[in-house]
TrEMBL record:
The lineage of its organism: Bacteria, Bacillati, Actinomycetota, Actinomycetes, Glycomycetales. Keywords: Membrane, Transmembrane, Transmembrane helix. It comes from Stackebrandtia albiflava. The chain crosses the membrane at residues 33-55, 67-84, 104-121, 133-154, 208-226, 233-250, 280-299, 370-394, 425-442. This is O-antigen ligase-like membrane protein.
């Protein structure tokens, strides 16, 4: 891959924490601290407030190409709230008031994503070098791998966070609230016939952990090999990628495995287009070595066991079919939020029982970003959402720098993972930061060319 031009030094600690763009530094560098405090996903709306103030104070706010499509999607999200009181056939009846908190959480999430993206876009190369952004994305990969190792070897670790301790007990016990404020190293499941910790730290869910790792791991390569750095950092990067194999397999996250394979294929295609065949050879060798390690160690048994146990396949299939069928009742704007089905594919029982723990209602729109957008925001919202990512891919198709290539991988993964991962909030924030970086890479390179 071509190195990234204009790689400015990272800057002093004081500049990182107090200068322009410091809100991004506080958000990303200290994310493990926010997680331990019980803020986790809550830190995104918190930090979006001062970011919005910063944008408001600017004389001019730059809106990058394709962002208008995203703003249309956000508008459709708000319009779809008008359907909160609609009860599709086969779903649990509930007033709009009961559905409002979940709907507002998602709408707020999209708002945070929008503000954070614009904040990142409107930083200049002098204020916040692209190299710094790449380093922050690399840091998120390091944090995710570290959390994965924690979940693998200390899977039962969990504790009451300060935020959780301050909440009323009834609120703190709610399952959704627990996912936000209760730090745990892993989700412990028994679908293999025995308890198995699946890494989740510091992202709350195993699927979110896998989603974040897939979109961040490529930035380790960019940070270590596409900028001038000391060899010890490159050795550390290779060691990190090698060690990451362990939690990647132990997560038993098939979506993550597929995303990593898709990412490798996209990189290979982009490199073939610019004739860098030797880099493809390095990528292929790394893949062969990784597969060799998996096959010749106990990790191979984990892969085989996971492939033999579909676990969530039936439930996902049922929820997807029901969501697609229900959209016909409100095709344009959807239903504003998710719904619970009356019973599931296993039983018509409203709730789970000891004899049938997976019985009970399924969440329509809870098993993938595509199904959530389609069900909650209708065909109009889905077209706008998909249109945004398609526009980004087309707009940056000719950027053959490392940022352009890895950024295109992240955009492709947003489209493939939407069938089985929900993107709000952290994965979508990271994806939009990558989008901001891609635009800044094109914009700032053009400005540097004019300056010469």
């Amino acid at each position: 891959m071509r190195p990234v031009p204009g790689g400015a030094p990272a800057g002093s600690a004081a500049t990182l924490l107090t200068g322009p763009g410091s809100l991004l530094t506080w958000l990303i560098v200290f994310y493990p601290v926010w997680w331990a405090l019980g803020l986790g996903a809550l830190i995104f709306p918190i930090v979006a407030i001062p970011m919005a103030v910063s944008l408001w104070r600017r004389r001019h706010v730059e809106v990058p190409p394709g962002f208008a499509v995203w703003l249309v999607f956000c508008l459709l999200v708000l319009l779809s709230l008008s359907a909160l009181d609609v009860d599709p056939a086969g779903t649990v009846a509930e007033g709009w008031w009961g559905r409002l908190p979940g709907a507002l959480y998602r709408a707020t999430g999209y708002g945070c994503v929008t503000v954070i993206a614009l904040y990142a876009v409107n930083l200049s190369e002098r204020e916040f070098p692209r190299r710094r952004m790449v380093n922050l994305l690399c840091w998120l990969a390091v944090v995710t791998v570290a959390g994965g190792l924690l979940g693998t070897f200390a899977g039962h670790l969990e504790f009451t966070s300060p935020v959780e301790a301050l909440l009323p007990p009834k609120v703190a016990r709610d399952g959704f609230v627990q996912s936000l404020v209760h730090p745990q190293a892993a989700q412990v499941m028994d679908f293999l016939g025995y308890e198995t910790p699946r890494p989740a730290a510091p992202w709350g869910y195993t699927n979110t952990w896998g989603n974040v790792l897939a979109v961040c791991v490529g930035w380790v390569v960019v940070a270590a090999f596409c900028f001038p750095v000391r060899w010890r950092w490159r050795i550390a990067a290779v060691a990190l990628l090698a060690v990451a194999i362990v939690p990647v397999i132990q997560s038993m996250n098939r979506g993550l495995w597929f995303n990593l394979a898709v990412g490798a294929v996209v990189v290979a295609i982009r490199l073939a287009v610019i004739g860098q065949l030797w880099t493809i050879g390095v990528l292929a060798l790394a893949g062969v070595l990784a597969v060799g390690v998996i096959v010749t160690t106990p990790l191979g048994e984990v892969v085989r066991a996971r492939l033999d146990n579909g676990h969530s396949d039936d439930g996902r299939g049922f929820a997807t079919a029901e969501a697609v069928e229900a959209v016909g009742e409100s095709p344009v704007l959807g239903f504003g939020s998710t719904r619970k089905t009356i019973g599931s594919g296993e039983s018509i029982a409203v709730g789970p029982t000891p004899e049938c723990p997976r019985c009970g209602g399924r969440t329509l729109g809870g098993n993938g970003q595509l199904w959530q957008v389609l069900f909650a925001h209708g065909i109009a919202g889905t077209v706008a959402y998909l249109g945004f990512f398609a526009t980004v891919l087309w707009r940056f198709r000719r950027d053959h720098t490392a940022v352009g290539i890895v950024g295109s991988v992240v955009m492709v993964l947003s489209l493939t993972s939407m069938f089985y991962y929900n993107a709000l909030v952290a994965p979508l924030v990271i994806t939009m930061l990558v989008y901001a970086l891609m635009w800044r890479n094109v914009r700032d390179r053009a400005m540097e060319g004019k300056a010469r």
